Amino acid sequence: MMPRQWYLRDLVFLALFLAGLMAVWWGLEYAAAYWPAMRYYNRILQQCIPLIRQTNPGEIKAKISKVIRPPEGEVYHSIESPKGEIGYYIVSDGKTQNAYRCHVRPPSFVNLQALPAMAKGHLVSDLVALIGTIDIVLGEVDR
User: Fold this and answer.
1) Cβ pair 90, 78 in contact under 8 A
2) Contact 104, 88 (CB under 8 A)
3) By the number of CB atoms within 10 A of the CB, which of 22, 23, 28, 115 ranks highest?
4) What's the burial of 1, exposed, middle or buried (CB within 10 Å: 0-12/13-18/19+)?
5) Is the model's pTM score more than 0.70?
6) Which residues pair with 84 in a beta bridge?
7) What kind and span of H or E run contains 73?
8) Neighbours of 99 (CB within 10 A)
9) Which of 22-31, 100-109, 116-125 has the lowest mean pLDDT?
10) Is residue 129 part of a domain?
């Protein structure tokens, strides 16, 4: 029979070995899930590289103004972000470079509205965990 210290050491090495195997397996599974997308991006790059080689070095540059004049009237546009949808509402007369009303709708402020429904029946001490599950950015919420 092996001494107890050797038995515990073998269990630790076995756990580390299994953790390494799991990391390799999850890595391969992750790569297999994104393999079609990587193949598609490769096809796009294969089409773009000959076109880039054919152009002269100075032809790729474009002049873009640093200030974009907002269009006349009201405009609302939303952009998808990792935490939700960011919305921009702009009101402008179209004559100046500055809009006279600009409102940003942050995703964390909208996500925080679910907190009262989630907090019903829980303790006050559970609020920290509930706020963590929403994953809000407090800089967006407190303005």
Assistant:
1) no
2) yes
3) 115
4) exposed
5) no
6) 81
7) strand 73-81
8) 19
9) 22-31
10) yes
